[in-house]
Amino acid sequence: MANATMEEFEALLNESLEMDTPEEGSVVKGKVIAIEAGQAIIDVGYKMEGRVELKEFANPGEAPDISVGDEVEVFLRAAENARGEAVISREMARREEAWDRLEKAYADDARVEGAIFGRVKGGFTVDLGGAVAFLPGSQVDVRPVRDAGPLMGLKQPFQILKMDRRRGNIVVSRRAILEESRAEQRAEVISNLTEGQAVDGVVKNITEYGAFVDLGGVDGLLHVTDMAWRRVNHPSEILTIGETVKVQVIKINKDTHRISLGMKQLQEDPWDLVAVKFPLGSVHQGRVTNITDYGAFVELEPGVEGLVHVSEMSWTKKNVHPGKIVSTSQEVDVMVLEIDPTKRRVSLGLKQTQRNPWEVFAETHPEGTEVEGEVKNITEFGLFIGLPGDIDGMVHLSDLSWDERGEDAIQNYRKGDIVKAVVSEVDIEKERISLSIKALGGDKFAEAVGGVKRGSVITVVVTSIEDGGIEVEYEGMKSFIRRSDLSRDRAEQRPERFSVGDKVDVRVTNIDSKTRRMGLSIKAREIAEEKEAVEQYGSSDSGASLGDILGAALKGDN
């Protein structure tokens, strides 16, 4: 009997020795035999027991899920420690198990479940059921997340972007999952939309150029130019975030899934009635909405704007910026000059609603009227004088003085001088007014020689004796008689035989109103007198001299 028992013991001993004892560093199965002091005592067989902290059986944010009698897999780190217990780890077993599972999911491009449990530099840590992965901040959501608190500890799907078992690195993305589901959702929403369809949407975001409207999972862009028929400077004038608006689908790009929306398309187009409401030549009151370098835009009614080109703004201010003539929001009267329904353009005129100042001036200041104004500018060809109606008149060099050359006379004037002048011509078409300063007080030359004709004999007074002749004066007008015209007799052609103050009868040989000169000659008078005497008293052919004829004539008179 004793022998039998010894044999049985030997057989059992041999059997136990022959059995494979588990290798350190491998995952083994065990049974929970007791739970005490926050630890689970696990029998891993082979007369080995070990302890595992209860928290190793808990998922992030959850209570440990373990009870006596449960079978669990643990990682055998060492067969025996100082206390004669096996050193085991549930966490390491889970990690090994998780890596196997995750590698397969990565290969199949499948989603994995996990929970965000911590925050690290540049992102978050995610528990993927035993393996810890890194979730970069940029991969948390489609848009930047300010507060990730609500996402912590939630079980949710992730996509593995990268993994390296040797280094223990895993990088995951939550954004990829969201984008995928969003794309599916977008595709579904877009498939139900058609161009021209009117739909309700919620204003999600407002930018300088428009607003993004959520059509139930997909965004469409409502451009600022499609919000209203009138000019909208900023979308916030019309819309507010969170507001529900009715929009029309204008265009769907099937490739990019971009949707263009419009609001004004659902309203009546004011341009359909423009030609009827604003006939050519009619005058309307409008509001200045925008000012540019080339003109000002004026709103005639909501949705209908016209342009007043800079050339149509003022009769007088030609090279001035439109902003100097009108200001934004100003109410102005404008005339409709042209309508182009195809290009949706209205040309307006501002100056046409006021009278042409040159016309007004021509009516109030006929030719010959005396005016007074300030010298605005002095040029090489004359003076510009400011006149009523904010217009200028010009005094040409030749109209400055009767006596002086224009180039000399202009030296007497300075900018800012107040001068008088006479209106000599008004050209409304060319917007030109000609003035004359020398015409003030009339034309002295014309008055002086009014009754004098060529061939007349007049009496002049000698004012100066010179080598080449004598200077004489008639009615305040000066003339010069050359030496050769002083006498018929060459011996008498001496200026010195005259004295200043002498009265002399002379014949008028020429009147030049342009140069304002009279041609005078004593010689011509003598010749004319001789001719007359010969005709009256005898013929020169008979040999009688002028002295004989005059002597006889004088005797006869006596």
TrEMBL record:
It comes from the Bacteria. InterPro entries: NA-bd_OB-fold (IPR012340), Ribos_protein_bS1-like (IPR050437), Ribosomal_bS1 (IPR000110), Ribosomal_protein_S1-like (IPR035104), S1_domain (IPR003029). Residues 25-91, 109-175, 196-264, 281-351, 368-438, 455-523 form the S1 motif domain. Keywords: Repeat, Ribonucleoprotein, Ribosomal protein, RNA-binding. One of its GO terms (cellular component) is ribosome. Belongs to the bacterial ribosomal protein bS1 family. Binds mRNA; thus facilitating recognition of the initiation point. It is needed to translate mRNA with a short Shine-Dalgarno (SD) purine-rich sequence. This is 30S ribosomal protein S1. It comes from Mesobacterium hydrothermale. The gene is rpsA.
